[in-house]
Specification:
The chain has about 130 residues and is mostly beta strands. About 5% of the residues lie in helices and about 45% in strands. It has 2 domains: about 1-50, no CATH class; about 55-134, SOR catalytic domain (Immunoglobulin-like). It is built from 1 helix and 12 strands; from the N terminus they run H-E-E-E-E-E-E-E-E-E-E-E-E.
């Protein structure tokens, strides 16, 4: 609807949805997280949301993955303070998506059921989205 009112038409180039083309959108006002299997036109709180750009983890956002039976234990040594924290961690594979929302004062660690090869996405509320292949 916002595109129609402004006269800007966003053409979707996706031929079909594919988990390998996963994109994440985060509202800077309310923190709402949207996952799409490709690019899309999303808005929240009156703002049009751009897809988050994926980066390779740096020292502060280093992702540690340990295999525990049929699960992955994912952890980060990252501040979890009110102004600087990991907002979500997602595991995307060809078989699906598992995502957990994290909050300040909570440990930046969790377990995912292993679904085969895929990617881990970690979103820092200050520094953006980081991706690691697993």
């Amino acid at each position: 609807m916002p595109e129609l009112l402004t006269g800007d038409v966003a053409a979707n180039q996706n031929v079909s949805a594919n988990m390998k083309r996963s994109k994440f959108y985060v509202c800077p006002i309310c923190g709402n997280v949207i996952h799409a299997m490709g690019e899309g036109a999303f808005s929240c709180c009156g703002l049009r949301l751009p897809p988050l750009e994926e980066e390779v983890p740096d020292g502060e956002h280093r992702i540690t993955v340990e295999t525990v039976e049929d699960e992955m234990f994912v952890s980060l040594n990252h501040p979890m303070e009110k102004g600087h924290f990991i907002s979500f961690i997602a595991y995307v594979s060809d078989n699906g998506l598992q995502m957990e929302k994290l909050y300040p004062e909570q440990a930046a660690e969790l377990r995912f059921r292993r679904m085969g090869p895929g990617k881990l996405f970690v979103c820092c509320n200050r520094h953006g989205l980081f991706r690691q292949t697993v």
